[in-house]
Amino acid sequence: MHPSISLAGGVEMPRCGLGTFKAGGTEVRGAVSAALAAGIRHIDTAAIYKNEELIAEALWDDARIPRGDVFITSKISPYQMGRKARQAAEEILQRLRVDFVDLLLIHWPGASGLKADSPRNAELRLETWRALEALKSEGRARAIGVSNFEAGHLRQLLDGAREPPAVNQIEVHPRWPQVHLRRACAEAGVAVTAYASLGCGQLLSEPAVRRAASEAGRSPAQVLLRWGLQQGCAVIPKSVRPERVREFAPAALLQGWELSAAQMGALDALAGDACKFCWDPSNIL
Protein backbone atom coordinates (compact mmCIF):
# COMPACT_ATOMS: atom_id res chain seq x y z
CA MET A 1 0.00 0.00 0.00
CA HIS A 2 1.35 3.41 -0.98
CA PRO A 3 2.11 5.53 2.10
CA SER A 4 0.22 8.58 0.81
CA ILE A 5 -3.01 9.56 -0.93
CA SER A 6 -2.76 11.85 -3.95
CA LEU A 7 -5.03 14.86 -3.55
CA ALA A 8 -6.09 17.34 -6.21
CA GLY A 9 -3.22 19.49 -7.40
CA GLY A 10 -0.59 16.85 -6.75
CA VAL A 11 -0.53 17.20 -2.96
CA GLU A 12 0.46 13.94 -1.24
CA MET A 13 -1.30 13.34 2.09
CA PRO A 14 0.30 10.68 4.33
CA ARG A 15 -2.17 7.88 5.04
CA CYS A 16 -1.04 7.51 8.65
CA GLY A 17 -1.28 10.51 10.94
CA LEU A 18 -1.66 11.51 14.56
CA GLY A 19 -4.88 13.03 15.86
CA THR A 20 -4.65 15.54 18.70
CA PHE A 21 -8.25 16.13 19.85
CA LYS A 22 -8.37 16.71 23.63
CA ALA A 23 -4.57 16.60 23.84
CA GLY A 24 -2.81 19.51 25.49
CA GLY A 25 0.13 20.60 27.59
CA THR A 26 3.18 18.41 27.83
CA GLU A 27 1.06 15.44 26.71
CA VAL A 28 0.54 16.73 23.19
CA ARG A 29 4.18 17.77 22.87
CA GLY A 30 5.24 14.29 23.94
CA ALA A 31 2.76 12.65 21.59
CA VAL A 32 3.95 14.67 18.60
CA SER A 33 7.58 13.93 19.46
CA ALA A 34 6.78 10.20 19.74
CA ALA A 35 4.92 10.32 16.43
CA LEU A 36 7.83 11.93 14.62
CA ALA A 37 10.22 9.37 16.13
CA ALA A 38 7.92 6.61 14.85
CA GLY A 39 7.97 7.98 11.32
CA ILE A 40 4.55 9.65 11.38
CA ARG A 41 4.60 12.78 9.24
CA HIS A 42 0.95 13.86 9.34
CA ILE A 43 -0.27 15.86 12.34
CA ASP A 44 -3.97 16.71 12.61
CA THR A 45 -5.18 19.60 14.74
CA ALA A 46 -7.88 22.29 14.75
CA ALA A 47 -8.48 25.78 16.03
CA ILE A 48 -11.06 24.47 18.46
CA TYR A 49 -8.57 21.99 19.98
CA LYS A 50 -6.57 24.92 21.39
CA ASN A 51 -3.26 23.08 21.03
CA GLU A 52 -1.76 24.50 17.83
CA GLU A 53 0.86 26.54 19.69
CA LEU A 54 1.93 23.44 21.63
CA ILE A 55 2.16 21.44 18.42
CA ALA A 56 4.33 24.18 16.95
CA GLU A 57 6.64 23.93 19.96
CA ALA A 58 6.90 20.16 19.50
CA LEU A 59 7.63 20.48 15.77
CA TRP A 60 9.90 23.49 15.59
CA ASP A 61 11.48 23.75 19.07
CA ASP A 62 11.68 20.13 20.24
CA ALA A 63 12.10 18.12 17.03
CA ARG A 64 13.32 20.97 14.81
CA ILE A 65 11.93 19.11 11.84
CA PRO A 66 12.12 20.84 8.43
CA ARG A 67 8.75 22.32 7.44
CA GLY A 68 8.66 20.31 4.22
CA ASP A 69 8.96 17.03 6.13
CA VAL A 70 5.64 17.25 7.95
CA PHE A 71 2.04 17.44 6.70
CA ILE A 72 -0.14 19.66 8.91
CA THR A 73 -3.94 19.63 8.86
CA SER A 74 -5.98 22.22 10.74
CA LYS A 75 -9.62 23.30 10.71
CA ILE A 76 -11.72 26.45 10.76
CA SER A 77 -13.86 26.55 13.91
CA PRO A 78 -17.67 26.64 13.61
CA TYR A 79 -17.43 29.84 15.67
CA GLN A 80 -15.50 31.54 12.85
CA MET A 81 -17.35 30.70 9.67
CA GLY A 82 -18.30 33.15 6.94
CA ARG A 83 -16.64 36.57 7.07
CA LYS A 84 -14.50 35.49 10.02
CA ALA A 85 -12.95 32.53 8.18
CA ARG A 86 -10.03 34.33 6.59
CA GLN A 87 -8.91 35.91 9.85
CA ALA A 88 -9.40 32.52 11.53
CA ALA A 89 -7.03 30.94 9.01
CA GLU A 90 -4.42 33.65 9.54
CA GLU A 91 -4.60 33.03 13.29
CA ILE A 92 -4.12 29.29 12.70
CA LEU A 93 -0.97 30.00 10.70
CA GLN A 94 0.32 32.32 13.43
CA ARG A 95 -0.29 29.77 16.18
CA LEU A 96 1.39 27.02 14.16
CA ARG A 97 4.24 29.39 13.17
CA VAL A 98 3.99 28.47 9.51
CA ASP A 99 3.44 30.30 6.22
CA PHE A 100 0.99 27.64 5.04
CA VAL A 101 -0.85 24.54 6.16
CA ASP A 102 -0.92 21.46 3.99
CA LEU A 103 -4.64 20.91 4.46
CA LEU A 104 -7.24 23.36 5.79
CA LEU A 105 -10.74 22.08 6.53
CA ILE A 106 -14.15 23.46 7.44
CA HIS A 107 -14.53 21.65 10.76
CA TRP A 108 -18.33 21.32 10.92
CA PRO A 109 -21.22 21.90 8.49
CA GLY A 110 -23.11 24.13 10.94
CA ALA A 111 -22.19 27.52 12.32
CA SER A 112 -22.20 28.06 16.07
CA GLY A 113 -25.14 30.15 17.21
CA LEU A 114 -27.48 28.95 14.46
CA LYS A 115 -30.22 26.38 14.78
CA ALA A 116 -29.55 23.14 12.93
CA ASP A 117 -32.43 23.78 10.51
CA SER A 118 -31.37 27.33 9.62
CA PRO A 119 -30.79 27.84 5.87
CA ARG A 120 -28.03 30.24 6.88
CA ASN A 121 -25.81 27.21 7.59
CA ALA A 122 -25.54 26.42 3.88
CA GLU A 123 -24.83 30.07 3.06
CA LEU A 124 -22.04 30.23 5.63
CA ARG A 125 -20.54 26.95 4.42
CA LEU A 126 -20.21 28.38 0.92
CA GLU A 127 -18.94 31.73 2.19
CA THR A 128 -16.31 29.92 4.27
CA TRP A 129 -15.41 27.76 1.30
CA ARG A 130 -14.83 30.86 -0.82
CA ALA A 131 -12.36 32.06 1.81
CA LEU A 132 -10.56 28.70 1.71
CA GLU A 133 -10.39 28.79 -2.08
CA ALA A 134 -8.78 32.23 -1.89
CA LEU A 135 -6.29 31.07 0.74
CA LYS A 136 -5.32 28.13 -1.44
CA SER A 137 -4.82 30.37 -4.48
CA GLU A 138 -2.52 32.54 -2.34
CA GLY A 139 -0.44 29.57 -1.19
CA ARG A 140 -1.63 29.75 2.41
CA ALA A 141 -3.11 26.24 2.16
CA ARG A 142 -1.81 23.58 -0.21
CA ALA A 143 -5.14 21.73 -0.17
CA ILE A 144 -8.60 22.50 1.24
CA GLY A 145 -11.44 20.30 2.37
CA VAL A 146 -14.24 19.67 4.84
CA SER A 147 -14.97 17.63 7.93
CA ASN A 148 -18.16 15.97 9.18
CA PHE A 149 -19.98 16.73 5.92
CA GLU A 150 -22.87 14.45 4.99
CA ALA A 151 -23.59 13.66 1.33
CA GLY A 152 -26.19 16.44 1.15
CA HIS A 153 -23.75 19.02 2.53
CA LEU A 154 -21.19 17.86 0.00
CA ARG A 155 -23.62 18.15 -2.92
CA GLN A 156 -24.64 21.66 -1.87
CA LEU A 157 -21.03 22.77 -1.63
CA LEU A 158 -20.08 21.22 -4.97
CA ASP A 159 -22.93 23.10 -6.65
CA GLY A 160 -21.43 26.45 -5.65
CA ALA A 161 -17.71 25.69 -5.35
CA ARG A 162 -15.09 26.73 -7.85
CA GLU A 163 -13.09 23.65 -6.89
CA PRO A 164 -14.18 20.55 -4.99
CA PRO A 165 -12.96 19.67 -1.50
CA ALA A 166 -9.86 17.51 -1.56
CA VAL A 167 -10.79 15.68 1.66
CA ASN A 168 -13.77 14.93 3.89
CA GLN A 169 -12.69 13.98 7.41
CA ILE A 170 -15.42 11.81 8.97
CA GLU A 171 -16.05 9.17 11.61
CA VAL A 172 -15.33 5.74 10.08
CA HIS A 173 -14.89 2.38 11.83
CA PRO A 174 -16.41 -1.11 11.50
CA ARG A 175 -19.48 -0.21 13.57
CA TRP A 176 -20.03 2.99 11.54
CA PRO A 177 -18.49 2.36 8.10
CA GLN A 178 -20.31 5.18 6.26
CA VAL A 179 -20.37 3.15 3.05
CA HIS A 180 -22.80 5.42 1.20
CA LEU A 181 -21.05 8.63 2.25
CA ARG A 182 -17.65 7.25 1.31
CA ARG A 183 -19.06 6.23 -2.07
CA ALA A 184 -20.41 9.76 -2.59
CA CYS A 185 -16.97 11.14 -1.73
CA ALA A 186 -15.27 8.76 -4.16
CA GLU A 187 -17.65 9.72 -6.96
CA ALA A 188 -16.84 13.40 -6.36
CA GLY A 189 -13.08 12.77 -6.21
CA VAL A 190 -12.95 13.58 -2.49
CA ALA A 191 -10.50 11.58 -0.36
CA VAL A 192 -11.63 10.38 3.07
CA THR A 193 -9.73 10.73 6.32
CA ALA A 194 -11.20 8.54 9.06
CA TYR A 195 -11.33 9.68 12.65
CA ALA A 196 -12.44 7.64 15.68
CA SER A 197 -11.03 4.55 13.96
CA LEU A 198 -10.87 2.76 17.31
CA GLY A 199 -14.48 3.59 18.16
CA CYS A 200 -13.26 5.82 21.00
CA GLY A 201 -11.64 2.68 22.43
CA GLN A 202 -14.92 0.76 22.50
CA LEU A 203 -13.97 -1.55 19.61
CA LEU A 204 -10.65 -2.78 20.99
CA SER A 205 -12.34 -5.57 22.93
CA GLU A 206 -14.64 -6.76 20.13
CA PRO A 207 -14.12 -10.54 19.62
CA ALA A 208 -13.70 -10.15 15.84
CA VAL A 209 -11.05 -7.50 16.38
CA ARG A 210 -9.16 -9.49 19.00
CA ARG A 211 -9.33 -12.65 16.89
CA ALA A 212 -7.88 -10.87 13.85
CA ALA A 213 -5.18 -9.33 16.06
CA SER A 214 -4.19 -12.74 17.38
CA GLU A 215 -4.11 -14.24 13.89
CA ALA A 216 -2.06 -11.36 12.46
CA GLY A 217 0.27 -10.94 15.43
CA ARG A 218 -0.79 -7.31 15.76
CA SER A 219 -2.55 -5.21 18.36
CA PRO A 220 -6.32 -4.63 18.23
CA ALA A 221 -5.65 -0.96 17.46
CA GLN A 222 -3.48 -1.90 14.50
CA VAL A 223 -6.19 -4.21 13.18
CA LEU A 224 -8.81 -1.45 13.32
CA LEU A 225 -6.48 1.03 11.66
CA ARG A 226 -5.52 -1.47 8.98
CA TRP A 227 -9.23 -2.06 8.31
CA GLY A 228 -9.63 1.67 7.69
CA LEU A 229 -6.57 1.78 5.45
CA GLN A 230 -7.84 -1.16 3.40
CA GLN A 231 -11.11 0.73 2.99
CA GLY A 232 -9.08 3.43 1.23
CA CYS A 233 -9.08 5.96 4.07
CA ALA A 234 -6.28 7.88 5.71
CA VAL A 235 -6.28 7.38 9.49
CA ILE A 236 -5.45 9.80 12.31
CA PRO A 237 -5.65 7.87 15.61
CA LYS A 238 -5.04 9.80 18.80
CA SER A 239 -3.05 8.85 21.87
CA VAL A 240 -0.77 10.73 24.23
CA ARG A 241 1.01 7.56 25.36
CA PRO A 242 4.27 7.10 23.42
CA GLU A 243 3.99 3.30 23.46
CA ARG A 244 0.55 3.54 21.86
CA VAL A 245 1.69 6.16 19.36
CA ARG A 246 4.38 3.74 18.18
CA GLU A 247 1.60 1.31 17.22
CA PHE A 248 0.40 3.92 14.72
CA ALA A 249 3.72 4.06 12.83
CA PRO A 250 3.41 3.78 9.03
CA ALA A 251 5.90 0.90 9.04
CA ALA A 252 3.70 -1.00 11.51
CA LEU A 253 0.46 -0.37 9.63
CA LEU A 254 1.42 -0.37 5.95
CA GLN A 255 4.28 -2.81 5.54
CA GLY A 256 4.47 -6.60 5.59
CA TRP A 257 0.89 -7.58 6.33
CA GLU A 258 -2.74 -7.08 5.49
CA LEU A 259 -6.10 -8.31 6.73
CA SER A 260 -7.45 -11.28 4.79
CA ALA A 261 -10.80 -11.21 3.02
CA ALA A 262 -12.23 -13.34 5.83
CA GLN A 263 -10.90 -10.99 8.51
CA MET A 264 -12.22 -7.95 6.65
CA GLY A 265 -15.59 -9.66 6.32
CA ALA A 266 -15.74 -10.40 10.04
CA LEU A 267 -15.00 -6.77 10.82
CA ASP A 268 -17.47 -5.53 8.20
CA ALA A 269 -20.15 -7.63 9.91
CA LEU A 270 -19.87 -5.41 13.00
CA ALA A 271 -21.88 -2.81 11.06
CA GLY A 272 -24.93 -4.97 11.74
CA ASP A 273 -24.82 -3.52 15.26
CA ALA A 274 -24.33 0.05 14.06
CA CYS A 275 -23.07 2.60 16.54
CA LYS A 276 -21.88 6.17 16.08
CA PHE A 277 -19.56 7.30 18.87
CA CYS A 278 -19.04 10.95 17.95
CA TRP A 279 -21.03 13.98 16.84
CA ASP A 280 -23.99 13.68 14.47
CA PRO A 281 -24.17 16.30 11.69
CA SER A 282 -27.11 14.68 9.89
CA ASN A 283 -29.71 17.15 11.20
CA ILE A 284 -27.85 20.24 10.00
CA LEU A 285 -29.55 21.83 7.00
TrEMBL record:
Annotated NADP-dependent oxidoreductase domain residues: 17-270
On whether Oxidoreductase is a keyword of this UniProt record, the answer is yes
Q: Which UniProt keywords apply?
A: NADP, Oxidoreductase
Stored InterPro entries: AKR (IPR020471), Aldo/ket_reductase_CS (IPR018170), NAD(P)_OxRdtase_dom_sf (IPR036812), NADP_OxRdtase_dom (IPR023210)
Where in the sequence is the active site? Answer: Y49 (proton donor)
Q: Where is this site: Lowers pKa of active site Tyr?
A: K75
- Molecular function GO labels: oxidoreductase activity, acting on the CH-OH group of donors, NAD or NADP as acceptor
Where, by residue number, does substrate bind? Answer: H107
Does the keyword Cell division feature in the UniProt annotation? no
Q: Which domain of life is it from?
A: Eukaryota
Return the similarity comment. Answer: Belongs to the aldo/keto reductase family.
**Per its record, how is this protein called by name?**
Glyoxal reductase-like
